[in-house]
Amino acid sequence: MEARAVRKYIRSSPRKMRPVVNVVRGKRVPEALDILNFLPQQVTRQVKLAILSAVHNLINQHPEERIDEDALVVREIRVDEGPRLKRYRPAPRGRAHPIRKRSAHLTVVVGTLEAAEEAVS
User: Fold this and answer.
1) Cα Rg of the chain, angstroms
2) Residue 7: how many other CB atoms lie within 10 Å
3) CATH topology of domain 2-120
4) Could you state, in order of their start, the residue ranges of all structural domains in the chain?
5) What's the pTM value of the predicted model, to 2 decimals?
6) How far, CA to CA in Å, does 53 sit from each of 61, 92, 93, 108?
7) Which of 60, 78, 77, 73 shows the shortest CA–CA distance to 30?
8) Torsion angle, CA of 69/72/73/78, rounded to 10 degrees?
9) Hey, how many other C-beta atoms are within 10 angstroms of the C-beta on 59?
Protein backbone atom coordinates (compact mmCIF):
# COMPACT_ATOMS: atom_id res chain seq x y z
CA MET A 1 0.00 0.00 0.00
CA GLU A 2 1.20 3.44 -0.79
CA ALA A 3 -0.17 6.94 -1.17
CA ARG A 4 1.28 10.19 -2.36
CA ALA A 5 0.91 13.88 -1.72
CA VAL A 6 2.04 16.80 -3.87
CA ARG A 7 2.64 20.35 -2.68
CA LYS A 8 3.11 22.79 -5.51
CA TYR A 9 4.39 26.35 -5.80
CA ILE A 10 6.33 26.35 -2.54
CA ARG A 11 8.10 29.72 -2.30
CA SER A 12 11.55 28.31 -1.68
CA SER A 13 14.22 27.31 -4.12
CA PRO A 14 14.63 23.59 -4.84
CA ARG A 15 18.32 23.90 -4.05
CA LYS A 16 17.49 24.90 -0.46
CA MET A 17 14.88 22.14 -0.08
CA ARG A 18 16.95 19.20 -1.32
CA PRO A 19 19.28 18.88 1.72
CA VAL A 20 16.24 18.73 4.02
CA VAL A 21 14.52 16.15 1.82
CA ASN A 22 17.63 13.99 1.57
CA VAL A 23 17.76 13.66 5.37
CA VAL A 24 14.29 12.08 5.65
CA ARG A 25 14.32 9.89 2.51
CA GLY A 26 13.85 6.21 3.40
CA LYS A 27 13.10 6.83 7.07
CA ARG A 28 10.01 5.76 8.98
CA VAL A 29 7.35 8.45 9.24
CA PRO A 30 7.59 9.14 13.02
CA GLU A 31 11.38 9.26 12.81
CA ALA A 32 11.24 11.60 9.80
CA LEU A 33 8.85 13.95 11.60
CA ASP A 34 11.10 14.00 14.68
CA ILE A 35 14.12 14.82 12.54
CA LEU A 36 12.24 17.65 10.83
CA ASN A 37 11.31 19.16 14.21
CA PHE A 38 14.98 19.74 15.02
CA LEU A 39 16.28 21.01 11.68
CA PRO A 40 16.81 24.80 11.54
CA GLN A 41 15.60 25.39 7.96
CA GLN A 42 12.24 27.10 7.44
CA VAL A 43 11.22 24.71 4.68
CA THR A 44 10.90 21.82 7.15
CA ARG A 45 7.33 22.93 7.87
CA GLN A 46 6.36 22.42 4.21
CA VAL A 47 8.03 19.00 4.09
CA LYS A 48 6.33 17.96 7.33
CA LEU A 49 2.91 18.99 6.02
CA ALA A 50 3.47 17.02 2.80
CA ILE A 51 4.45 13.86 4.72
CA LEU A 52 1.42 14.14 7.00
CA SER A 53 -0.81 14.70 3.99
CA ALA A 54 0.52 11.54 2.33
CA VAL A 55 -0.12 9.56 5.54
CA HIS A 56 -3.69 10.84 5.76
CA ASN A 57 -4.23 10.09 2.06
CA LEU A 58 -3.19 6.48 2.72
CA ILE A 59 -5.58 6.23 5.66
CA ASN A 60 -8.43 7.70 3.58
CA GLN A 61 -7.77 5.35 0.66
CA HIS A 62 -8.10 2.27 2.89
CA PRO A 63 -10.81 3.09 5.46
CA GLU A 64 -11.61 -0.57 6.16
CA GLU A 65 -8.04 -1.46 7.15
CA ARG A 66 -6.25 -0.50 10.31
CA ILE A 67 -2.97 1.17 9.40
CA ASP A 68 -0.14 1.44 11.89
CA GLU A 69 1.43 4.84 11.34
CA ASP A 70 4.69 3.66 12.96
CA ALA A 71 5.10 1.05 10.19
CA LEU A 72 4.93 3.60 7.36
CA VAL A 73 8.05 4.57 5.45
CA VAL A 74 8.86 7.61 3.31
CA ARG A 75 9.43 5.59 0.13
CA GLU A 76 9.97 8.44 -2.28
CA ILE A 77 10.41 12.14 -1.74
CA ARG A 78 11.31 14.46 -4.59
CA VAL A 79 11.76 18.19 -5.13
CA ASP A 80 11.20 19.51 -8.63
CA GLU A 81 11.63 23.01 -9.93
CA GLY A 82 8.53 25.15 -10.23
CA PRO A 83 7.99 28.35 -12.17
CA ARG A 84 10.13 31.40 -11.51
CA LEU A 85 8.78 34.86 -10.83
CA LYS A 86 10.89 37.34 -12.74
CA ARG A 87 11.42 40.71 -11.14
CA TYR A 88 13.84 43.55 -11.85
CA ARG A 89 15.82 45.72 -9.49
CA PRO A 90 17.12 49.16 -10.35
CA ALA A 91 20.86 49.29 -10.83
CA PRO A 92 23.36 52.10 -11.34
CA ARG A 93 23.47 54.09 -14.58
CA GLY A 94 19.83 53.43 -15.47
CA ARG A 95 20.20 49.70 -15.78
CA ALA A 96 18.08 46.89 -14.36
CA HIS A 97 19.28 43.66 -12.79
CA PRO A 98 17.02 40.60 -12.98
CA ILE A 99 15.85 38.80 -9.85
CA ARG A 100 14.51 35.26 -10.16
CA LYS A 101 12.20 34.25 -7.31
CA ARG A 102 12.23 30.48 -7.51
CA SER A 103 9.54 28.02 -6.46
CA ALA A 104 9.46 24.27 -5.96
CA HIS A 105 7.11 21.30 -6.23
CA LEU A 106 7.38 18.62 -3.53
CA THR A 107 6.19 15.04 -4.10
CA VAL A 108 6.04 12.52 -1.22
CA VAL A 109 5.18 8.83 -1.49
CA VAL A 110 4.49 6.98 1.77
CA GLY A 111 4.12 3.19 1.92
CA THR A 112 4.12 0.28 4.32
CA LEU A 113 7.24 -1.62 5.26
CA GLU A 114 6.01 -4.84 3.59
CA ALA A 115 5.57 -3.07 0.26
CA ALA A 116 9.03 -1.57 0.54
CA GLU A 117 10.61 -4.98 1.20
CA GLU A 118 8.76 -6.53 -1.76
CA ALA A 119 10.00 -3.78 -4.09
CA VAL A 120 13.62 -4.43 -3.04
CA SER A 121 13.53 -8.19 -3.62
Assistant:
1) 18
2) 16
3) Ribosomal Protein L22; Chain A (3.90.470)
4) 2-120
5) 0.89
6) 12, 47, 50, 9
7) 73
8) -70
9) 15
C-alpha torsion 88→90→96→102, nearest 10: -30
| Degrees to nearest 5, angle at CA 55 with 114 and 28 | 50
3-state secondary structure of 54: helix
Q: How many residues does the chain have?
A: 121
What's the rounded Cα separation, in Å, for the pair 95 and 97?
7
pLDDT tens, position by position, for the chain (121 residues)? 899 999 999 999 999 999 999 999 999 999 999 999 999 999 999 999 999 999 999 999 998 988 898 999 999 999 999 999 999 999 999 999 999 999 999 999 999 987 556 665 5
Concatenate the DSSP letters of all residues of 65-117 into one string: S---GGGEEEEEEEEEE---EEEEEE-GGG-EEEEEE--EEEEEEEEEHHHHH
